[in-house]
Amino acid sequence: MKKIYDAETRFADAGDRKIAYRSYGKGKAVFFVNRFRGTLDTWDPLFIALMAKKFNVIVFDYSGIGSSTGSLTPDLTVVAKDIKDLADVLKIDSIVVLGWSYGGLVAQAATLLYPNLVTHAVLIGTNPPGQNEVPIEQAFFDAALKPLNDFEDEIVLFFEPKSESSKLAAKASHDRIHKKIDVKKIPSTMDVFQLYFGGGDGFREDALNFREQIKKTKTPILIISGDHDISFAVENWYSFFNQMTNAQMVVYSGTGHGPQHQFPELTSKHIINFVKYT
């Protein structure tokens, strides 16, 4: 994975801001759309490496986050424009969006707003638009809002603390990520956290009726979740999934909010096959 760790950070000039990104591999472009507080460095390098065997993986920082200039906005439709603008600068006219957590909300917005750009959507550890029955657990807030998270917080936030195998996977993923990470780039203040939460609030209010649109979209959607996600409970998909017209769903037992970090090999295989056969 030496090349993964050594990848150059580049900057796409989007006019009013510069979007920081890294590119891995060749093939169809897959845009990795990040979680709450996520940066270029917080994806598991093994997951990137496995995906980059079949795709051109593009990871990026939202405007105003990490190494990107500009500012984050609580309007998810504006955040989703980062995807479109980055694709335009890179002259890519067809992409898969892979959104994790908050990034799954952004990915759904991009899927609906840019149907001529997004051919497939992969939604990891996230929820559908609109009001959902199962809320975020208090354990998320207790850990996620600390200025700096340690390894024990990561177990709670992204894995399943009750599972020994999940905790072992957490340690392996943590070690891969922290081999090279700039923690100073990770958002750490409540004013920035509130911008993320504002996006989540707007997604639940659903003024643009994304909930009905995502049911009917012809874009193939793959949903990947853990069975105990303290942020976006997988149960919120169950009453919704059978109303969707073009979706698949994978749920891992003994797994939390970051299934692609607990099972990078298995998750990458699911995604590769999904894109190949749909």
UniProtKB/TrEMBL annotation:
<dbReference type="GO" id="GO:0016787">
    <property type="term" value="F:hydrolase activity"/>
</dbReference>
<dbReference type="Pfam" id="PF00561">
    <property type="entry name" value="Abhydrolase_1"/>
</dbReference>
<keyword id="KW-0378">Hydrolase</keyword>
<feature type="domain" description="AB hydrolase-1">
    <location>
        <begin position="36"/>
        <end position="262"/>
    </location>
</feature>
<protein>
    <submittedName>
        <fullName>Alpha/beta hydrolase</fullName>
    </submittedName>
</protein>
<dbReference type="InterPro" id="IPR029058">
    <property type="entry name" value="AB_hydrolase_fold"/>
</dbReference>
<dbReference type="InterPro" id="IPR000073">
    <property type="entry name" value="AB_hydrolase_1"/>
</dbReference>
<dbReference type="InterPro" id="IPR050266">
    <property type="entry name" value="AB_hydrolase_sf"/>
</dbReference>
